[in-house]
Description:
One of its GO terms (cellular component) is cytoplasm. It is found in: Cytoplasm. This protein has 10 helices and 5 strands; from the N terminus they run βββαββααααααααα. By secondary structure, the chain is α+β, with helices and mostly antiparallel strands. It has a 5-stranded mixed barrel. The chain starts with a strand and ends with a helix.
Amino acid sequence: MIGRIAGRLEYRGSDHVLIDVRGVGYIVHVSDRTLAAMPGPGEAVALYTELLVREDLLQLFGFPTLLEKEWHRLLVTVQGVGAKAAMAILGTLGAEGVARAIALGDARAVQAAPGIGPKIAQRVVLELKSKAPDAMALAANPALTTSTAAGDDVLEPVTAAEPPRRTKAAAPVAPTRAAHSAEALSALLNLGYGQGDAAQAVAQAAGETPEAGTADLIRAALRLLAPKG
């Protein structure tokens, strides 16, 4: 599986780019938003990728962040949404916009993507609504929301390197209750909720379920913030 491409941008098409990696050219399909943010030909680029395998076709799809790649994976699980339709939705809304539209049940925002009709848009919102909090919780991890970097070294010949030294990995630090609440609050603010309402909902959710993680707090807070009646 090809998970990341880093090399020199050779040319930009209408919906894809050609990236030269040590003399091998890879055609990578990208969204309009990703294409607009890419540098000019000859510059170093890097993208996270997803390989689509069919009987008569192999296609690479590229994403600037792991979070956007994860949303693409979720979108294609919806019946009637193929890889290119998912790219159209991401190109129109971006990863945060997709999360906002699905969490708020805003099918019209999804429908704004080229080629997405009202039935498909409604299906996307309904089928992914329960998964949105998990994806929104991922957004709190900087490693998943930071664009993959491609330094100038990808343009130079490969040189021999010293064998890596084995070092003892540091034990991961578990997020605290306050960290979960802060991440949930940040996600709600990104959805457009006011500071006061969002903070109150997160505080109530955290008080009712002290052991809840970020995704569970987002779910509980969204239920509290949902219109009554």
